[in-house]
């Protein structure tokens, strides 16, 4: 396991955050710090507000109240500076959109292109600054998808789609990576590859924050765990947070608070809890 | 100053029409004969431009699943046109105001009530349309209403032609200048927002472009049939390619060729030009549906048959 600095600085600081969908509270009074340079797992049952938290961080949802800072500045500034990369769940994207794998990953560079010379901004792909192509190539190589560059994204398998989405986040070369269930629904080789890539990012000093239901991987890889179910139920080292008692308490909280939204199929979390 | 602009506009239109006629005159006489009249030349130039910008915008409409929204905006434009006519404003300003108000209203109903988006759209645009019909019935004749609803391309005046030209140039420029934000927004709006793009500006910018296109198409196909020109070319192109730029190219070609062939056929057969243009576009769509090498019905059957 990677060493943890004694006094980690905060990559993301959340104060007094409340969020709701149509007056239905999803997040209540969230006070939370994501340590810089560490790999954090956000764990919670379905409907616990994990994706909502990411929607707030990415600016896709306005919170009712509360502030979010990254490295001491309002997070919107970091978004515009391209410091925050986001990997959505696979369902968030139209896979029959007419773009290739390469073009999709290049999308992760569109934010940085605002800082290119003015004339490049209005030119087609062959006039992009070479550094964008390099970043895309590196990212695709890292997830072992370089050979698929020209494929339409609709022709990929489930695990390959996940890897392309990860590559798009990597290509941004951001300081903070937000990953919404990067391990859900992938084949075992893809899962191992994704975990290795994320460990590599963390070793380069990036802050990695992922939502996951995969307890074995979380125990094995991450430095920091946040338990969430509409409110923060705990934050700390994986050994402490992912104990059977803590997870069971989180599951009971789910039965009380979100029983109606429970998915009928057993999620990886509930199977992990059943053991 | 205004006279100078007017003269410039007229010169530009004449130049464009002369250039177009050079191309048309290359065709066999049986085809080009219809276009020897000045009103046919004006109709042709307008149709070509409308086909091009509708084809361009229809890529976004189809990929963003905005077909119903396009329908809604096109209907909502009617009261704006009527009010602008009353006040002596340019059509576009009134049309944009009511188009934008309607789309904001749709969004508000969707977000703040339990009504779903399709009902919200249906409700708002029919209400706006009804308002438009009521106003027009008071101030203008029913032929005027028919022309707005179904187009009157053979009677296109020079001022309308100029409006279409300006709208086409603005739409082209906007798509070119904001190509990447528009592409990212159409593909994955959440990602666009995470990268710091202002997605509500892009959203309303795209609605503005749609309204502009609809107003520009008013005299050619009318506000009812313009919806077809905003859906069919993009849908046809989507069946034929997996590349966005190629899709735009095909879509614009489908739009322009439908406009030209439809106009010619309507002159030959002496039938309504707006309807004929849309029918030609629909013909293209069914040909693509049948014959597309990858997504066509025949190719699919062939693959199934070969697999046993």
From TrEMBL, chain A:
InterPro entries: AAA+_ATPase (IPR003593), ABC_transporter-like_ATP-bd (IPR003439), ABC_transporter-like_CS (IPR017871), Metal_Ion_Import_ABC (IPR050153), P-loop_NTPase (IPR027417)
UniProt cross-references to Pfam families, sorted A to Z: ABC_tran
SMART domains: AAA
UniProt domain ABC transporter: residue ranges: 12-255
Family: Belongs to the ABC transporter superfamily.
Alphabetically ordered keywords of this record: ATP-binding, Nucleotide-binding, Transport
Domain of life from the UniProt record: Bacteria
Organism for this UniProt entry: Vreelandella subterranea
MF terms in GO: ATP binding; ATP hydrolysis activity
Name used for this protein in its record: Manganese/iron transport system ATP-binding protein
TrEMBL record, chain B:
Stretches that traverse the bilayer: 12-31, 43-63, 83-109, 121-140, 160-183, 195-215, 221-240, 247-265, 277-297
Intracellular or extracellular location(s): Cell membrane; Membrane
Main location: membrane
CDD domains: TM_ABC_iron-siderophores_like
Pfam families listed in its UniProt record: ABC-3
Gene Ontology cellular component list: ATP-binding cassette (ABC) transporter complex
Entry keyword annotation includes Protein biosynthesis: no
Membrane-topology annotation of the record: Multi-pass membrane protein
UniProt protein name: Manganese/iron transport system permease protein
Alphabetic keyword roster: Ion transport, Iron, Iron transport, Membrane, Transmembrane, Transmembrane helix, Transport
Top-rank lineage group of the source organism: Bacteria
Family: Belongs to the ABC-3 integral membrane protein family.
Gene3D superfamilies per UniProt: ABC transporter involved in vitamin B12 uptake, BtuC
SUPFAM superfamilies registered for this protein in UniProt: ABC transporter involved in vitamin B12 uptake, BtuC
GO BP, sorted A to Z: cellular response to iron ion; iron ion transport; response to zinc ion; transmembrane transport
Keyword Ligase included in the entry's annotation: no
């Amino acid at each position: 396991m990677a060493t943890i600095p004694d006094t980690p600085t905060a990559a993301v600081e959340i104060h007094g955050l409340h969020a709701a969908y149509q007056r239905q509270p999803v997040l209540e009074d969230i006070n939370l710090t994501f340590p810089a340079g560490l790999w954090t797992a956000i764990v919670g049952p379905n409907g616990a507000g994990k994706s909502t938290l990411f929607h707030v961080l990415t600016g896709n949802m306005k919170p009712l109240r509360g502030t979010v800072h990254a490295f001491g500045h309002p997070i919107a500034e970091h978004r515009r500076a391209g410091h925050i990369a986001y990997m959505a769940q696979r369902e968030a994207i139209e896979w029959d959109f007419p773009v290739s794998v390469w073009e999709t990953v290049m999308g992760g560079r569109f934010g940085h292109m605002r800082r290119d010379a003015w004339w490049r901004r209005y030119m087609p792909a062959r006039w992009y600054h070479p550094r964008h192509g390099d970043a895309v190539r590196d990212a695709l190589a890292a997830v072992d998808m370089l050979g698929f560059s020209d494929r339409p994204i609709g022709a990929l398998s489930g695990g390959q789609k996940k890897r392309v989405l990860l590559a798009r986040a990597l290509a941004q070369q951001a300081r903070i990576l937000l990953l919404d269930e990067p391990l859900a629904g992938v084949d075992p080789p893809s899962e191992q590859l994704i975990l290795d890539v994320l460990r590599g990012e963390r070793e380069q000093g990036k802050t990695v924050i992922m939502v996951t239901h995969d307890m074995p991987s979380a125990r094995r890889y991450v430095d920091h765990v946040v338990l969430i179910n509409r409110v923060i139920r705990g934050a700390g080292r994986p050994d402490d947070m992912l104990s059977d008692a803590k997870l069971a308490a989180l599951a009971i909280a789910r039965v009380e608070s979100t029983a109606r939204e429970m998915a009928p199929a057993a999620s990886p979390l509930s199977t992990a809890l059943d053991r | 100053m205004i006279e100078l602009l007017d003269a410039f506009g007229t010169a530009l239109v004449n130049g464009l029409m002369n250039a177009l006629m050079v191309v048309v005159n290359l065709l066999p006489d049986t085809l080009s004969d219809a276009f020897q009249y000045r009103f046919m030349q004006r109709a042709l130039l307008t149709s070509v431009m409308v086909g091009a910008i509708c084809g361009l915008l229809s890529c976004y409409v189809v990929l963003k699943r905005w077909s119903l929204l396009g329908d809604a905006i096109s209907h909502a434009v009617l009261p704006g046109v009527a009010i602008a006519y009353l006040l002596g404003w340019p059509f576009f300003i009134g049309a944009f105001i009511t188009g934008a108000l309607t789309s904001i209203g749709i969004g508000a109903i969707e977000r703040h009530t339990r009504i779903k988006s399709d009902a919200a759209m249906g409700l708002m645009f029919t209400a706006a349309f009804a308002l438009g019909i009521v106003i027009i019935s008071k101030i203008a004749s029913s032929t005027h209403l028919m022309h707005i609803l179904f187009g009157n391309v053979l009677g296109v005046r020079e001022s309308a032609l100029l409006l279409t030209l300006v709208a086409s140039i603005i739409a082209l420029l906007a798509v070119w200048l904001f190509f990447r934000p528009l592409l990212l927004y159409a593909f994955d709006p959440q990602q666009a927002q995470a990268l710091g793009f202002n997605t509500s500006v892009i959203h309303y910018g795209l609605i503005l472009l749609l309204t502009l296109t609809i107003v520009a198409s008013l005299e050619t196909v009318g506000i009812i049939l313009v919806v077809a020109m905003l859906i069919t070319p993009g849908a046809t192109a989507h069946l034929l390619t997996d590349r966005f730029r190629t899709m735009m190219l095909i879509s614009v070609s489908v739009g322009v060729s439908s406009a030209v062939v439809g106009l010619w056929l309507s002159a030959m057969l002496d039938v309504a030009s707006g309807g004929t243009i849309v029918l030609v576009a629909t013909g293209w769509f069914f040909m693509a549906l049948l014959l597309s090498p990858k997504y066509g019905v025949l190719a699919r059957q062939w693959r199934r048959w070969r697999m046993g």
